[in-house]
């Protein structure tokens, strides 16, 4: 809502009785004052008529008459809350802090009640915006945020890339990745509490386990915040606020469909009960979505000629192709079962080819059931509170993780065919899916997150003690995988009843034999976190410009992670293994403090008002040492309608448990490296591989500067711009992928090469049991040491500009709205090592694009509302293709139409909405995107393959 100062001059008001939320919007436009209201607090409430000439306070008091709501001024913003007495409460700076929960507002980015984060940019997405977005899940909505990069853990990226920890997302969850710095560098909170983490490494918060219908608002802080929250808050913080103040009942149903029999359904129920001393909220949600086969989209075939790409179909086909001992190839003919096949039947010089994507899903089938509960009870001067979330999600997908491999067949096999008559072993390129079915996976992810505590107010101070516990369990079963040992044995058997036939067309093997040859892989993850916290905040003393406020606290947190895999792929028995470094556990102790200091205000000779925020946090880790992180923020309001702000701070990310394996996972191996400075062209090096034992936290320095404009002369207009700069150093990485260029590119890798190694150090490595010496060299032969281990190695610096513009214009019984926001990245300077030259990676494959935009044109007219939304992604370069490809920009439109029907039987209110996403069904731009086992014709890190979706949603409240 449009904001202005708290001036209370007389003006004319004419606000008709209507839904309170709409009346507050109209009041905000007329008065020029910023108003925040929890959607559940104002739901189903009607405003009183306001007609005549009033000052702003009196107009608001009349508007709220009979609603049992009050307005409190917090740093110039009006916060609507439950309460009794005067409809307009005094400023908290003058009278202290209100006692109800809604007055205990703590916005993401600060620990101080009633104070927004000084200097830092925060985006708040309320319930109304979520409903009108046309998006069903939180993950789907957050993909539309311009500051979010779709790379990292998501349903579409697992199996397609390993970048951004996408390869750890065993259960096809969804994370958030602000600025493209990795999902582990964005901190996600549930009502300010850390949840259990997801994935094999515990690298992200799984948004798919959160019922979107239970969310009241999303607060997105796009600034480093480790001084406030600790580890992971490098790129920013996403705080999910639940509907803890809901009262009444709400039922919602949604059904959607897209081309290719792709469908989704959501059914949710919310109940809320309030009494004089407390309240209770219960929520349940069921969500299901079908799979999306690759055959339903032309850009997900290996034959990309229809979209302007090459034909890259696999050489593994059914029937297959024989590679003879002399290197000649022979295609196996179709229409036969491999029995009685002769050399004369083979087609020399030809390869049978097949599209491996024909049996693959782009997106898995998902089904989830989630429950949420929130309770609060006042007992004298103490308020007890508790919250709990349980979610259970299951998935099923066809996906080729392992893929077929060439098999060797000898003359012992009864189906053996010798194309050249030498009786030597042959190699067959054979796709076993006709017999075994497509490779796939099914799994389950369950999460339990509990929090609770007690708080009390002592004068102007609020004291709170709280605790939380999170548990996430995941299981992933890879199915229809061939057991390597048993397959090798079946290929050399001479009995036709037990030997494997790889020469036929179609399913030609006995199902009993196929069953014996099936193997499997079962992966299990268990992630836990517990927290205990003590916090106090309140006023310290008064200055001429206002009250100095302090928040301080202590926290202790425990983290546990375990990941096990059970292999039935090799040998004669199953094998259980753990990732190195697991099971992992750590304890973190923290102390923090935050001050908000008013430097001057309008009552002085200086222009406007200036606020200063100082924050600091010290954390001590049981496994990686300690770290201290400060933050400074400034907020200056020189004149009405203008805010200038800036922030500076340090942030960090603690290493994953899987990165803290040290020498236990190290390998030392002599290897010859190309060396242009050597007379022989190569140098014998001792390569150090694995992980260094001295890994520490990744660290970042970030600063922002911005301005917010709300012109008094043009009510309803908002303009905002924020410059940001994040210098992320000591990133945990390895240069082992390019070890053979270490000596050829000393300008890049020189710091990783010891040109004059100490003979004693070399001798120690040669005495280590982790030495691998296939060359049989002596320690004295080693000329250099090349350190390709994983450690705090790389750097990245991101600079860019976020901007937002919006305008709201009142019309009879409604309003017209127009908004456009975006993020423009100017550079992503990446350094492989600290001394290497920086390479600007913005607008390249695997990195954020230069420009992302999100806009909307909307209307409200009585009971009707609607909007047309725009999402734009600029073009970029695919540097992995030869020659490099230029990827086109992509723009899509979403349509939303809604109607509200009030006064339905039983006091119910009904809202019906039609949502069409990707209205014109635009395919994503063509990209030659190579995966570990296949190829795609689009970029799953940047775009969606779903296409146009049409959904109908109904919401009933009573």
Automatic annotation (TrEMBL):
PROSITE patterns recorded: TONB_DEPENDENT_REC_3
Record keywords: Cell outer membrane, Ion transport, Iron, Iron transport, Membrane, Receptor, TonB box, Transmembrane, Transmembrane beta strand, Transport
All copies of domain Secretin/TonB short N-terminal, residue ranges: 33-83
Membrane topology classification: Multi-pass membrane protein
One Pfam entry name: STN
The keyword DNA repair belongs to this UniProt entry's keyword annotation: no
Cellular compartment(s): Cell outer membrane
SUPFAM superfamilies listed in its UniProt record: Porins
Similarity comment: family membership: Belongs to the TonB-dependent receptor family.
Name used for this protein in its record: TonB-dependent receptor
């Amino acid at each position: 809502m449009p904001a202005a100062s708290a001036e209370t001059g007389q003006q004319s008001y004419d606000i008709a009785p209507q839904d309170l939320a709409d009346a507050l919007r109209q009041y905000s436009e007329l008065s020029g004052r910023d108003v925040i209201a929890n959607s559940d607090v104002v739901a189903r409430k009607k405003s009183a008529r306001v007609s005549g000439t009033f000052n702003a306070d009196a107009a608001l008091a009349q508007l709220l008459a009979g609603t049992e709501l009050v307005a409190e001024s917090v740093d110039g913003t009006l916060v609507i809350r439950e309460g009794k007495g005067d409809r307009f409460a005094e400023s908290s700076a003058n009278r202290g802090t209100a006692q109800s929960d809604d007055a205990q507002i703590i916005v993401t980015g600060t620990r101080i009640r009633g104070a927004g984060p000084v200097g830092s940019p925060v985006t708040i997405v309320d319930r109304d915006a979520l409903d009108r977005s046309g998006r069903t899940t939180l993950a789907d909505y957050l993909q539309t945020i311009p500051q979010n990069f779709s790379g990292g853990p998501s349903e579409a990226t697992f199996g397609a890339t390993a970048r951004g920890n996408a390869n750890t997302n065993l259960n096809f969850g969804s994370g958030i990745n602000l600025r493209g710095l990795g999902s582990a560098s964005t901190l996600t909170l549930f009502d300010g509490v850390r949840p259990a983490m997801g994935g094999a490494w515990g690298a992200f918060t799984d948004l798919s386990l959160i019922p979107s219908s239970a969310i009241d608002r999303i607060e997105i802080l796009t600034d480093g915040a480790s001084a406030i929250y600790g580890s992971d808050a490098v790129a920013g913080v996403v705080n999910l606020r639940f509907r803890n103040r809901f009262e009444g009942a709400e039922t919602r149903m949604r059904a959607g469909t897209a081309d290719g029999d792709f469908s989704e359904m959501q059914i949710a129920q919310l109940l809320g009960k309030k009494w004089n001393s407390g309240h209770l909220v219960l929520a349940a949600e069921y969500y299901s979505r079908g799979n999306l086969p690759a055959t339903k989209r032309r850009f997900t075939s290996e034959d990309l000629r229809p979209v302007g790409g090459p034909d890259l179909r696999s050489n593994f086909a059914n029937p297959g192709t024989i590679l003879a001992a002399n290197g000649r190839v022979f295609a196996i003919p179709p229409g036969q079962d491999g029995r009685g096949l002769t050399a004369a039947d083979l087609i020399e010089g030809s390869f049978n080819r097949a599209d491996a994507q024909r049996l693959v899903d782009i997106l898995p089938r998902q089904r989830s059931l989630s429950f949420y509960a929130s309770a609060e009870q006042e007992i004298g001067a103490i308020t007890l509170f508790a919250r709990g979330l349980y979610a259970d999600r299951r998935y099923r997908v066809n996906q080729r993780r392992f893929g077929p491999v060439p098999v060797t067949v000898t003359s012992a096999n009864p189906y053996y065919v010798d194309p050249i008559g030498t009786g030597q072993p042959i190699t067959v390129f054979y796709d076993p899916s006709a017999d075994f079915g497509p490779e796939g996976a099914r799994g389950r992810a369950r999460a339990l997150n509990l929090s609770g505590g007690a708080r009390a107010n002592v004068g102007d101070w609020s004291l709170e003690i709280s605790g939380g516990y999170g548990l996430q369990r995941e299981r992933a079963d890879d199915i229809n995988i061939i057991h390597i040992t048993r397959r090798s044995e079946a290929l050399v058997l001479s009995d036709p009843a037990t030997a494997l036939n790889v020469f036929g067309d179609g399913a030609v093997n006995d199902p009993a034999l196929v069953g014996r040859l099936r193997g499997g892989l079962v992966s299990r993850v268990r992630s836990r976190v517990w927290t205990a916290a003590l916090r106090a905040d309140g006023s310290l003393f008064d200055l001429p410009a206002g009250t100095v406020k302090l928040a301080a606290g202590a926290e202790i947190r425990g983290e546990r992670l375990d990941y096990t895999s059970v292999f039935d792929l090799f040998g004669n028995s199953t094998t259980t293994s753990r990732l190195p470094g697991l099971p992992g556990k750590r304890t973190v102790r923290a102390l923090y403090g935050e001050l908000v200091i008013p430097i001057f205000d309008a009552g002085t000779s200086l222009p406007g008002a200036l606020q200063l925020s100082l924050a600091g946090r010290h954390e001590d880790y049981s496994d990686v040492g300690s770290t201290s992180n400060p933050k400074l923020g400034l907020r200056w309001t020189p004149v009405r309608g203008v805010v200038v702000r800036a922030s500076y701070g340090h942030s960090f990310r603690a290493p994953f448990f899987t990165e803290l394996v040290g020498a236990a996972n190290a390998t030392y191996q002599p290897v010859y490296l190309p060396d242009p400075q050597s007379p022989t062209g190569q140098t014998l090096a001792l390569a150090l591989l694995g992980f260094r034992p001295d890994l520490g936290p990744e660290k970042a320095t970030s600063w922002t500067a911005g301005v917010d404009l709300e012109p008094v002369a043009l009510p309803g207009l908002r303009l905002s711009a924020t410059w940001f700069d994040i210098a992320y150093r000591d990133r945990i990485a390895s240069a082992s992928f390019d070890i053979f260029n270490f000596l050829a590119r000393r300008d890049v890798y020189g710091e990783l090469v010891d040109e004059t190694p100490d003979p004693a150090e070399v001798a120690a490595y040669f005495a280590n049991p982790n030495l691998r010496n296939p060359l049989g060299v002596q320690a004295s032969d080693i000329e250099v040491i090349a350190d390709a281990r994983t450690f705090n190695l790389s750097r990245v610096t991101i600079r860019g500009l976020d901007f937002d513009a919006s305008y709201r214009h009142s019309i009879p019984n409604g309003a017209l709205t127009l908004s456009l926001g975006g993020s423009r990245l100017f550079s992503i300077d990446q350094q492989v090592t600290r001394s290497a030259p920086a390479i600007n990676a913005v607008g390249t494959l695997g990195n954020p694009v230069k420009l992302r935009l999100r806009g909307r044109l909307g209307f409200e007219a009585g009971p009707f509302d609607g909007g047309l939304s725009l999402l734009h992604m600029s073009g970029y370069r695919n540097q992995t293709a030869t020659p490099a490809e230029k990827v086109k920009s992509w723009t899509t439109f979403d349509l939303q139409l809604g109607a509200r029907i009030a006064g339905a039987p039983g006091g119910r209110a009904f809202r019906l909405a039609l949502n069409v996403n990707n209205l014109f069904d635009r395919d994503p731009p063509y990209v030659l995107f190579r995966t570990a086992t296949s190829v795609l014709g689009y970029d799953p890190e940047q775009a969606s393959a779903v296409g146009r979706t049409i959904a109908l949603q109904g919401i009933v409240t009573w």
